[in-house]
Amino acid sequence: MRLKGKRIGFALTGSHCTLEKVMPEIEKIMAEGAEIYPVISPAIDQTDTRYGDATEWKTRIVRLAGRKIINSIVSAEPIGPKMLLDAYLVVPCTGNTLAKLAAGITDTAVLMGAKAMLRNQRPVVLAVSTNDGLGLNAKNIGLLLNTKNIYMVPFGQDSPFTKPNSLVARIDLVLPTLLAALEGRQLQPVLVNLAEEDFQFAR
Questions:
Q1: Which of 2, 70, 124, 190 has the smallest C-beta neighbourhood within 10 Å, fewest atoms?
Q2: Domain 7-190 classification at class level
Q3: Residue 184 vs residues 6, 82, 88, 121: alpha-carbon distances, Å
Q4: pLDDT tens per residue, the chain (203 residues)?
Q5: What are the sequence ranges of the domains in the chain?
Q6: Shortest CA distance to 177 belongs to which of 87, 100, 109, 102?
Q7: What pTM was computed for the model?
Q8: b/e per residue 68-99 (b: at least 16 CB within 10 A)
């Protein structure tokens, strides 16, 4: 059990189409012996979508983690002074959250948790899921890639011809990225092919 005794923050933001893939990753991390502290953004806390109602997702997260959700800045604030967590995951991490983190904005529980971890010089792992990763958010990804104690789950273009600016992390690499981050290493390669069957030369 490679994470025995570790306390891991697992933050979820509003890439609702990714949530179903994320749930098994919570189970994998717990199977390695970690305690999970779930944190959610307002989009997860309050928004019903075609991918599921907010109440359903929150119930599922609590059931998996076995712990109350952190969903406010006030409830996330103690993460810093109490040195509560060993590592912090943001899975999925939307473009909105990426941009705010890069700009030093702290207006959600998820961002407060990340700020607290960076204050404590402990690893923050981001799994990007954004339609503008190669657009307006490209500069933010570049900035965060070069920020101490921030690590990226390897990512790539998920739909290069229909959504050429879209980037999505390899969710199945969340655990390996976390393990590497706890050792102070970035899992490599950072850039991966997600949709090899889609690559073709224009005629």
A1: 2
A2: alpha beta
A3: 15, 22, 13, 11
A4: 999 999 999 999 999 999 999 999 999 999 999 999 999 999 999 999 999 999 999 999 999 999 999 999 999 999 999 999 999 999 999 999 999 999 999 999 999 999 999 999 999 999 999 999 999 999 999 999 999 999 999 999 999 999 999 999 999 999 999 999 999 999 999 999 986 554 444 43
A5: 7-190
A6: 87
A7: 0.95
A8: ebbbebeebbebbeeebbbbbbbbbbbbbbbb
